[in-house]
Write a structure and sequence with these properties.
The chain is mostly helical and about 220 residues long. The chain has helices at about 1-10, 20-35, 45-50, 65-100, 110-115, 125-165, 195-205; strands at about 170-180, 185-195, 210-215. Strands 1-2-3 form a three-stranded mixed sheet. A hairpin with a 5-residue loop joins strand 1 and strand 2 (about 185-195). Residues about 1-10, about 35-45 and about 50-55 have low confidence and may be disordered.
Length: about 220
């Protein structure tokens, strides 16, 4: 034990150390400190181990890794994660660019130039605003086209019905609108023919009294 070793070196009790001359006191203290560094039953640590920095003072447990090495490993891990995220973002942007490039719009659209420059690099709010405006204009144009086609179909059907009743020269004009529930409604029908008296009741029976009907003599 270390205590026994110290007893051999200095058999006097330590509480009597103060009675010795100063030079002797320093010598004894030096011997004590040197003995503390000598391995005794595995309790001490060799000086070369302390100097190597591979062990904690007072035991044989391995020391923690050097802090700069830990920081370097952390930075490497973060760099790898950032690289993976960058690659993923680039792939998503490429897909989005392909989608945006495939958007169709009329060359006469008021936002045609901005729509042609759409890309994944643009701010999301700007892209959303442009696409929402384009969608609204396209929906309105589609509704107008549908309304116009429905009017043409009605005019053709009314003229065919009047021809079946002997009014061969009838020309019908239908005015239609889209209601709040997105339905196409008949607002008014005007028919030009040589026999208005015969045409009007036929049109009323076909369209109902809710529709405004005007029958005029063809010039």
């Amino acid at each position: 034990m270390t205590g026994g070793f110290l007893t051999i070196i200095f058999p006097l009790p330590l509480d009597l150390l103060h009675v010795l001359p100063v030079g002797v006191q320093l010598t004894v203290i030096g011997l004590i400190l040197g003995a503390a560094l000598v391995p005794d039953g595995g309790a001490g640590i060799a000086a070369d181990k302390i100097q190597s920095g591979k062990y904690y003072a007072g035991n044989d447990l391995p020391a923690q890794p050097d802090l700069p090495q830990r920081e370097q490993k952390l930075q490497e891990a973060l760099a790898e994660e950032n690289s993976a995220l960058t690659a993923q973002r680039a792939a998503l942007n490429a897909k989005l660019d392909a989608v945006l490039a495939g958007i169709s719009y009329d060359a006469a659209d008021p936002e045609a130039e901005a729509l042609g420059a759409l890309s994944a690099q643009m701010p999301p709010d700007a892209v959303a605003t442009l696409l929402e405006g384009l969608t609204a204009r396209q929906e309105a144009a589609a509704a107008q086209a549908t309304q116009k086609q429905a009017a043409a179909n009605l005019e053709e059907s009314l003229e065919a019905m009047l021809r079946q009743h002997g009014i061969a020269d009838a020309q019908a004009e239908a005015e239609m609108y889209i209601s709040g529930d997105n339905c196409i409604e008949i607002e008014q029908v005007t028919v030009y023919c040589t026999d208005p008296a015969a045409a009007e009741p036929l049109l009323t029976d076909c369209l109902g009294k809710e529709v405004k009907i005007h029958v005029e003599t063809a010039s």
